Amino acid sequence: MPHFQRISLVHYHELGLKGHNRSTFERHLMRNLSSLLEDAPVEKVTRISGRVLVMYQASADASEIAEAADLIARVPGVARVSCGFVCDRELDQMYAAADAALSEAGAFDTWKVVARRNHTDFEIDSMEMNQLVGAYLCERYPDKKVKMKHPDVEVHVEVVQGHSYIYAQSIPGVGGLPVGTAGKVVCLMSSGIDSPVAAWRMARRGATCIGVHFSGRPQTASTSEYLVDDIAHVLERFGGIARVYVVPFGDYQRDIAGMVPPALRIIIYRRLMMRIAERIARREGAKALVTGESLGQVASQTLDNLAATNAAVEMQIFRPLIGSDKLEIIADAQKLGTFEISSNPAPDCCTLFMPRSPETHAKIADVEAAEEALPWQEWIEEIMENLELHEYRCPSSYRVRDAARAAEQAQSSSRVADADAAVSQGTVLFG
Ligand code: ATP
Ligand code: MG
């Protein structure tokens, strides 16, 4: 059997992508993919006919390609990833590539060919291609059945410009929008189960996430910081997180615990966290705060207490999990790959000085009165001076000062450059 170059075609939903939106979407998606696939055996990331085309190196083996496809499927903006081959638009080659694709499709009983050409300069139309490739495969797989509706496997044959792209394997992607198309948000990240899922939901809508973690240090060990770092590394794989600020918060909590009525402690910790997160957001140019709160899950997540927390800041606060059940959140955390990390016990700074019966219906006036005993404005200045910053690889947050480095990388690998050149050419052939 001839040896064809292996490829993945990355499909995205084009719904609502018109004019300028579409080119922004494509530019971000290609840049994110090029960068996230840096360690994969990829020769080139480019674009054909409203898809992203990933071409693998000849040396890449099947398991490396399966791993790359699995990564691509988890990158926000990707609706589907198909894996197969590219060959010339010669029938003999197309037959052999279709045969190779079908032979790798796993167990199946029924199949069909789905052919398509993007230009009439290829003399065989899609109906004829269906028949020709279909007839060839019928001979090769005499005991398998052709089925038009819902077959086990579809062998796709796409003739685009001078090449044919042929695949029979396809996996669904996470959908959403490419990270970087929606601006920045600051995510309050504990090492718990919920907040990583909340951040992920925002990343999947195109937001670049900046984490803020309040550690119980020096009153507790730094366990939660290591867990948050592990969580950030999971989000980093899909380009979802750019940096995490760690705030050593234990001493402030101890002071709050000594100075305000026990029932209001948690709400007052929360308000201080929000104010600090808002300051960080302003510094970062982020336009919203994000938490993993879910209505009624714990005492601090009643409507009254959420309102008391909101009242501490002006910036909008998003709570993507507000209507989710814990079991749904756990299922999402498992899919994301953060559940096991979050299941490790860590002395959270909120549990450190936990009152026995926290207020569930805090009145804003009472909270504000209690806060008068605290020099919280001074604390915020002090905390802002002592932030600890952890950086993660996030293609959407390359800044101007990183542009030179990015250009250098692009030149050395030529992949980002190819990707950008392909986008700026703006060739959209289908759709
Ligand atoms: P999670 O599993 O995300 O910790 P939770 O159900 O344990 O959520 P809380 O501990 O009440 O609920 O926290 C609610 C939200 O407040 C978290 O989802 C997170 O956004 C924020 N938060 C809580 N503790 C911290 C912390 N130590 N650092 C940063 N953010 C925090
Ligand atoms: Mg928690």
Annotate the secondary structure layout.
Layout: E1 5-11, H1 19-36, E2 42-48, E3 51-56, H2 62-73, E4 78-88, H3 91-103, E5 110-117, H4 126-140, E6 145-146, E7 153-160, E8 163-175, E9 184-188, H5 194-204, E10 208-215, H6 223-237, E11 241-248, H7 250-259, H8 265-284, E12 289-290, H9 303-310, E13 317-318, H10 326-336, H11 339-342, H12 349-352, H13 364-371, H14 376-385, E14 388-391, H15 400-413, H16 415-425
Helix pairs in contact: 1-16, 3-4, 5-10, 8-9, 8-14
The structure holds adenosine-5'-triphosphate and magnesium ion.
Pfam families: ThiI (PF02568), ThiI_fer (PF22025), THUMP (PF02926)
Organism: Slackia piriformis YIT 12062
Subcellular location: Cytoplasm
Describe this structure in words.
By secondary structure, the protein is an alpha/beta fold. It has two domains: 4-172, 2-Layer Sandwich (VC0802-like); 184-391, HUPs (Rossmann fold, 3-Layer(aba) Sandwich). Helices cover 43% and strands 21% of the residues. It contains 16 helices and 14 strands. Strands 2-3-1-4-8-7-5-6 form an eight-stranded mixed beta sheet. A hairpin with a 2-residue loop joins strand 2 (42-48) and strand 3. Helix 1 (19-36) packs antiparallel against helix 16, helix 3 packs across helix 4 and helix 5 (194-204) packs across helix 10. The chain is elongated. It starts with a strand and ends in a 6-residue tail after the last helix. The model is unreliable at 414-431 (pLDDT under 50). The structure holds adenosine-5'-triphosphate (ATP) and magnesium ion (MG). The site of magnesium ion has 3 residues, from loops. It is an enzyme of class 2 (transferase). This is Probable tRNA sulfurtransferase. Pathway: Cofactor biosynthesis; thiamine diphosphate biosynthesis.
